[in-house]
Amino acid sequence: DRQHLVRQNGTGRSYFIEKLFSAVAFAERGLVGVNPKVERRRKWIAQGVLASTVALVLVVGTLWWVSYRANQAYIAQVDQKV
């Protein structure tokens, strides 16, 4: 048979969790830092991706516009023959 666990309604505090956060996690927060060299490289990469995206949009937009103008000229040429 299973034994049912009795739920405890005490006002006890979780000392383990409190000790974990105060003595370990928060105490060691100074160990984590930012590497300036890595951050500069990440910034350059992000700017490169942005610049490449803008260039790609401009090239595709220009090609699309040139194609549109060529098609308009072709339609005008066909209309003159008909």
Highlighted features:
single chain; 82 residues; mainly alpha; 2 helices; elongated
Describe the structure.
This protein has 82 residues and is mainly alpha-helical. It has a domain of 48 residues. 70% of the residues lie in helices and 0% in strands. It contains two helices and no strands. The longest helix has 46 residues. It is elongated. The N and C termini lie far apart (95 Å). 0% of the residues are buried.
Q: What topology does this entry show?
A:
Layout: H1 15-25, H2 36-81
Report strand %.
under 5%
Unreliably modeled segments: none
Put simply, the count of helices is: 2
**Computed structural class:** mainly alpha
Q: What's the helical proportion of residues?
A: 55-70%
How many β-strands, per DSSP?
0
Report the sheet with the most strands, covering strand number, pairing sense and barrel closure: none
Distance between the termini: 95 Å
Approximate shape:
elongated
pLDDT averaged over residues: 86
Radius of gyration: 33 Å
Topology as H/E string?
A: HH
